[in-house]
Amino acid sequence: MASRFHFVALGADPEVFLVDKDGQPFSAEGLFGGTKYKPKPMGIGEGFFIQEDNVSAEYNIPPSTTAAGFARNIEKGLSYIRSRAKKLKLNICLESALKFPEQHLTTKHAQTLGCEPDYNIWSMRVNERPVPPKLLRTAAGHVHASWKDPEPDQVTALVRTLDVILGVPSILVTKKNERRSLYGRAGAFRPKDYGVEYRTLYSME
Fold first, then answer.
1. What are φ and ψ of residue 60, in 5° steps?
2. Contact, 170 vs 202, CB < 8 A?
3. Fewer CB within 10 Å, N side or C side of the chain?
4. Measuring CA to CA, how many Å separate 193 from each of 66, 155, 169, 173?
5. Which of 82-86, 131-135, 140-144, 168-172 has the highest mean predicted lDDT (pLDDT)?
6. Radius of gyration of the chain from Cα atoms?
7. Is the pLDDT reported for residue 129 higher than 80?
8. Which are the contacts of 33, defined by CB distance < 8 A and separation ≥ 6?
9. Which whole number is the average pLDDT over 3-11?
10. Distance between CA atoms of residues 120 and 106, nearest Å
């Protein structure tokens, strides 16, 4: 049985696609700056960062202890990307999977998919890294939970609970897409020194 713990805060790192005026997918590479290992401050408040993740724009929000604060931070970061995209005559697209024109996928960065492995909370095994179709790229809405002195049994209990209260409902409110066969299987997570990253959720479609 998991020991009791005090829930502290929720953060997230949503990935957002861009499309041109004709609705065609457009790579975010070279448009926003920031990398996985050196994200760029967004200049809209402490804890907001942005990075170019493959062909998407990924942003990080500061942790919040309230539902209203979490939602406000999500929208604040999204508004930043929307504004930047508009100046480039582009729009944001909240789909979880898009097929990009081949000319947007020629760089090494655009060909690099995934980074660190994640795990399955039910089998306790590493999830195999999928090989998506050549032109397909996916986006996600990973949630980060933090609390004081996280313990392994607490991580297990929380991720399994998140599968029930977030994972299952997300299937009911998002349309079927190709990401489901590749990423975001039930119980996908990464342990963190502050708690856990829950990786099952799709983007914000």
1. -110, 135
2. yes
3. N
4. 21, 11, 28, 31
5. 82-86
6. 17
7. no
8. 40, 50, 51, 52
9. 77
10. 32
